[in-house]
Amino acid sequence: MLSLLPDIRHHLQIAHQSAEVIVVDDASSDGTPEVVKSFAADSSDQWRVRLIQRVGETGLSSAAVAGMQAATGNILMLMDADHSHPAA
Fold first, then answer.
1. Nearest to 54 by CA among 81, 32, 30, 24
2. What is d(CA 67, CA 72) in angstroms, rounded to the nearest whole number?
3. Are 78 and 64 in contact (CB under 8 A)?
4. Which of 41, 42, 50, 87 is most buried by its number of CB atoms within 10 A?
5. Residue 74's pLDDT band (cuts 50, 70, 90)
6. How far apart are CA 54 and CA 77, in angstroms?
7. Is the pLDDT at 50 greater than 90, yes or no?
8. CA angle at residue 47 from 6 to 49, to 5 degrees?
9. Average pLDDT over the chain, rounded to an integer
């Protein structure tokens, strides 16, 4: 997660696009909430980062649904934070 968020922001800046990035975390122990919160504190009109923390729930499908239900945009995209989906 630490390198994925800067990559996403970089590619958005290059494309002159804005985005709302929602990270859904299922009680991970790798420090994801802290990293996301630091990026959320640096949010702007072009770059909005939000965190959804789930306790007692796991799974990519239900995490995707939770993120999409919370989204405010018209175009939605899903990325797994394991770098299997390149930020570009």
1. 24
2. 10
3. yes
4. 50
5. confident
6. 20
7. yes
8. 75
9. 89
What is the structure's pLDDT at 46? 80
Does the pLDDT value for residue 1 go beyond 80? no
For 81, the token pair is 């934070």
Look at residues 82, 79, 71, 59 and name the one whose alpha carbon lies nearest to residue 2.
82
Nearest alpha-carbon partner for 35 in 64, 63, 2: 2
Site of tokens 């394991």: 82
Residue from 66, 62, 29 nearest 51 by CA: 66
Closest by CA to 80, choosing from 14, 26, 15, 35, is 26
Instruction: Tell me the one-letter amino acid at 78.
Output: L
| Encoded amino acid at 5, one letter | L
- In this predicted structure, what is the pLDDT of residue 2? 67
**Which two structure tokens, joined as six digits, stand for 54?**
């789930």
Residue 81 is classified by DSSP as T
Which token pair is 65?
């649904």
